[in-house]
Amino acid sequence: MIPGIDISEWQGHVDFNAVKASGVKFVLIRAGYGRSASQEDRYFAEHYTQAKAAGLQVGAYWYSYAISPEDAANEARACLTVLGNRHFDYPIYFDLEEQWQFHQGRAFCDSLVKSFCCVLEQNGCYAGLYISRSPLQNYISSAVAQRYAVWVAEYGPRCNYSGNYGIWQHSSTGSVPGVNGNCDLDYSYIDYAAVINKKQPITRKNPDELAAEVLDGQWGNGADRQQRLTAAGYDYAVVQEKVNRLLNRKSVDQIAREVIRGSWGNGNERINRLKQAGYDPTQIQKRVNQLL
Q: What domain of life is recorded for the organism (predicted)?
């Protein structure tokens, strides 16, 4: 276990040299909250600079008030603005705590997490979720919990969450030299600094390269293609537009008439070829039936 703490403006000025001398290895710093970069934590810049100068490994978190996935994406953009070009050794966490958010149900909470973290990942961040153990179990799906780095809060002698998690926040009343008053205490079970700092730079492909790969069948079809491109950090709409231009995309009516002439084959062959070309086989068949 790697000992750490998390702090915000509520701790005020911190003597990070004393913190490090006490055995703490990492610190997770609140960067801000809400959908505007103007809501930057007023001690974030100071905390980051001084923690780094003391030789501590640093991560960050952003408190959410998001009312929709779109709002969560805006919060992520605000977070990125505040983070700037700073380097982080630990993940950047989406801090989900509002009870009214949990009351909207699991699908809603999942959508917030995915929206926020997707924007972070598209901008090169290692994204994670901070949440208490009970709502993690009740309002976050296992698929989402397994997809992102989890920092779970549960105070006491052990964490009772049965799923995987990287960091456990085990106390909110810790006393650490260099910190005024109480602060949260954490254990990390993953050496995130080693994972993040050795990550190789991602080679980004331009839309023309991706469109050529799509036409070569490397990115699947339909919704699968969209999901895979988005998960890889690419803008699906931009790539698909390039694909359509390369195909000199025709209208549904034109394609339907070509189908009737036999230009697209029959049965599964036709369906696969239409999908590969970016057309909806069901929509085309509907028009074929109308013409016949």
A: Bacteria
